[in-house]
């Protein structure tokens, strides 16, 4: 015999008198108050931006991100391995230098406690 009811009571805990519609999935209480349901119309619509909004040039790089430790002269000629402390805004960014002699150079600076580590990767192309 086919099931003809469009709602089914939930018989567990505080939801004993709550019903859920099997066709729409909407929960209702004995007073008819909806406790769930669909989202507002258009809340998940994908509206394409106008072509003019995406056809321009990419945004400029902020000036602080252009000041990398790798592009500066060492402060001491006695020890060229000793570099200045990097600015906090350049940490955890990936830098790619222009390809020269078919080699791509990537660099990233990270901080661990009071130490700064700059990693360079040379990738032949």
Automatic annotation (TrEMBL):
Chain segments carrying region Disordered: 31-64
Domain of life of the source: Eukaryota
Residues passing through the membrane, by range: none
Database matches in Gene3D superfamilies: 6.20.250.60
Residue span, Association with the SNF1 complex (ASC) domain: 37-125
InterPro entries cross-referenced by the UniProt entry: ASC_dom, ASC_dom_sf, KINB
Keywords, alphabetical: Kinase, Transferase
SUPFAM superfamilies given in the database record: AMPKBI-like
Tagged with keyword Protein biosynthesis: no
Keyword Transferase: yes
Pfam families: AMPKBI
Matching SMART domains: AMPKBI
GO molecular-function terms, A-Z: kinase activity
Entry GO terms, CC: cytoplasm
Classification via PANTHER family: SNF1-RELATED PROTEIN KINASE REGULATORY SUBUNIT BETA-1, SNF1-RELATED PROTEIN KINASE REGULATORY SUBUNIT BETA-2
Family: Belongs to the 5'-AMP-activated protein kinase beta subunit family.
Name the record gives this protein: 5'-AMP-activated protein kinase subunit beta-2
């Amino acid at each position: 015999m086919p099931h003809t009811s469009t709602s089914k009571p939930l018989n567990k805990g505080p939801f004993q008198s709550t019903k859920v519609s099997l066709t729409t999935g909407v929960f209702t209480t004995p007073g008819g108050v909806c406790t769930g349901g669909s989202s507002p119309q258009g809340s998940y619509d994908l509206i394409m931006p106008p072509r003019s909004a995406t056809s321009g040039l990419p945004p400029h790089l902020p000036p602080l991100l252009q000041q990398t430790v790798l592009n500066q002269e060492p402060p001491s000629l006695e020890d060229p391995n000793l570099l200045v402390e990097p600015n906090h805004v350049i940490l955890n960014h990936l830098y790619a230098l222009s390809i020269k002699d078919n080699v791509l150079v990537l660099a990233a600076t990270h901080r661990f406690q009071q130490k700064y580590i700059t990693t360079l990767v040379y990738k032949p192309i």
